[in-house]
Amino acid sequence: MTALARPTHGRVLGGVCAALARRFGTSATTMRVIFLLSCLLPGPQFLVYIALWILLPSEETTGSAW
Fold first, then answer.
1. pLDDT of the residue at 12
2. 36: closest CA among 54, 8, 16?
3. CA of residue 6 relative to chain centroid, distance
């Protein structure tokens, strides 16, 4: 598994779904479909997406930390 960071390439809106897809080893399209289907259920999906967008670092800022 890779570090959880929003990629600079391949992101559509904020890169949250692309980061989660990379982390869990699936395609970004699959993760986006899962997110859209989860929006049909009641819950705070949009708030979680916005929180992850704010909290996850961008890939370009995490390169030299380790």
1. 84
2. 16
3. 6
pLDDT of residue 29: 93
> Closest by alpha carbon to 50, among 8, 21, 15?
15
- Of 15, 21, 27, 24, nearest to 59 by C-alpha is 15
Residue 56 tokens, joined: 């996850």
State the Rg of the chain over Cα: 12
Q: How many other CB atoms are found less than 10 A from the CB of residue 62?
A: 14
| Beta carbons of 62 and 23 less than 8 angstroms apart | no
pLDDT tens for residues 22-60?
Answer: 999 999 999 999 999 999 999 999 999 999 999 998 887
Indicate the residue type of 25.
Answer: G
pTM: 0.76
Structure tokens at 51: 């929180």
